[in-house]
Amino acid sequence: MITERGQALNLLSEEIQGCVRCPRLVRWREEVAREKRAAFSGQEYWGRPVPGFGDPDARLALLGLAPAAHGANRTGRMFTGDRSGDFLYAALWRAGLADSPLSRERSDGLSLNGVWVTAAVRCAPPQNRPSREELANCMSWSERELPLLHDVRVILCLGAFAWNAALTLRTVVYGESALRPRPRFTHGGELPGERIAMLGCYHPSQQNTFTGRLTEPMIDGVIARARTLAGL
Question: Where do the structural domains in the chain lie, given as residue ranges?
Fold first, then answer.
């Protein structure tokens, strides 16, 4: 049975999927969806903004940068269908926060426990570099999404981009004081708050996981800490 909170999140998801605020991102996501990668030539790409995904009663929110061009932009679910997602969801599974270590497609039945996965930008950007205006446009969705997740106590930021976005959301959504100078992102870095805490983790991109900059023990340690802070 879908709860009132779940219904509100579903309605927001539908709005997000129809967003056309950023012409450059609309052109790029649709171009990628038409041209496709050879390995996925037989698949229909999502090619639209990607909504958040997970447990409506989450106490932990994972915030990434943006959908991958041939990952979430193809599958329609955050961190699904690419190596970054393989690494992330396997870690959530080891922590008991996901019922499967794999995330292949939107309809694979993956369920998260106490976790909501989202991103600062909802469309795949060229070179993974959204502009400031594009970020600002997308942040308005997060400013509506997070208040619906009443139980969230911790935002786990996957990378410096997500960390900086969360610093803004921390003030706008939760009323935490803006800090000067702004706290810098570090892996394992913590920022407590009266309403919301933040944690930093290197992004599970291939550039980090293939080089050993981010290892399984490293992400497991951060997720374990996030669980403690969130009361999971």
Answer: 4-230
Share of the chain above pLDDT 70, in %: 100
Q: Is the model's pLDDT at 166 over the cut of 80?
A: yes
CATH number for the segment(s) 4-230: 3.40.470.10
- Tens of pLDDT, residue by residue over 130-139, are 999 999 999 9
**Going edge to edge, which strands form the sheet with 53-54?**
53-54, 115-119, 60-64, 154-158, 197-201, 190-191
Single out the residue of 129, 88, 101 nearest to residue 219, CA to CA.
Answer: 88
CA angle 51, 87, 96 (to 5 degrees): 80
pTM above 0.85, yes or no: yes
Place of tokens 């786990």: 156
What dihedral angle (degrees, nearest 10) is formed by the CA atoms of 182, 185, 188, 194?
30
